[in-house]
Each structure stands twice: as structure tokens, then as C-alpha cells.
Prior knowledge:
Layout: H1 2-9, E1 23-38, E2 54-63, E3 88-96, H2 100-105, E4 112-120, E5 125-132, E6 136-146, E7 149-162, E8 168-178
Antiparallel strand pairs: 1-2, 1-8, 2-3, 3-4, 4-5, 5-6, 6-7, 7-8
Amino acid sequence: xFVRTLLLAGGLLGAVPAFAGPGNAVFDVSIDGTTxxxxxxxxxxxxxxxxxxxxxxxxTIFAGGTIPEGGTVDAPSTFGPDEPGxxxxxxxxxxxxxxxxxxxxxxxxxxxxxxxxxxxxxxxVLVTEGEEGAAVVTRTVTGxxxxxxxxxxxxxxxxxxxxxxxxxxxxxxxALVNRSIASP
Length: 184
């Protein structure tokens, strides 16, 4: 996996298919910051975020290696969720497990816990769970469907840059295992 990630980072493999079934799945997500909605509690700004506050945000899924690495808050990547070539929709819901003050002070190594749903245009679906708060985090694939197969697995989510909507572009590298129960 390290060699494949290294080759992708160096642009030597180019775009790779998202996944065809059990095995290794690599795909990118460009989050759309304009879709970010916090819970209905009276939150006037980020400084009002407390542990327990919830949110939802969406983005566009692309084949792995499609989104170029780079982009910061001050100089964002021009690659965003509206670029052509998307292969699905990403939906993320989550809860803050620390206050904004603690996150900004660096005293909260884990900022959020999230559930992410990957809805591919061809009908495949994956669902992951995990913590957020670092450049690279581990995600657990709690389930998904690929044709007649039911898959589970685990892997990494890596921040590869910030886009013009003010949030992250991500790369996912997941190992999927077929957990289908054979019919009698």
C-alpha cells in the first residue's frame, strides 16, 4: 500500500478506478464547504462550537489520483467538488468531541467522529466510521455493497489539500473484504 500511495503522490500511476469489488480501493473526495450545516443550536461562529454539536456536509467522489495534491487556506487548490469527472456523492455526518477552543489550542487530538456514506453513480455504496483531527486517520468500512457482494474493511483517509470552498480534498485508500453469506 505504501508503494502505491507513493506512486500516486508522485503522479506516476495517474487516475486509478475507485474499486470493482473486494480488494484495494483508492478514491478521492472533494468536499463542498458550501453544504456544511451545523446543528440547530444557536451557533453564531466557529468559536461557539462545543463537544456534542453535530453537522452534515457533502462532496464529490473522483477516481483515485484525480485530485492533485496541494492547496492551503491562504492559497487553495483550484480543484473542487464541481470539477467534471465525478463518480459519486459523498455524505458525511458527524459530532464534535471537543470544543472549537480546545481544537484550536491543540489540546484535542480528536476533534470529530464521523460516519461517511459513499454513493457511487453505478449503485455501489460504502459506509465508513472514524475519528477526525489529523492529516491521516484510520477509517473502518462498516459495510457496503458491490454488486452481489457485501464488503467490510479498513484503511486511511488523507488530507491532500484545501479547496476553494474552504475545506479539504481527501484521498481514501481502503482494503475491502467480501463478507457475503453464501446462499444454501
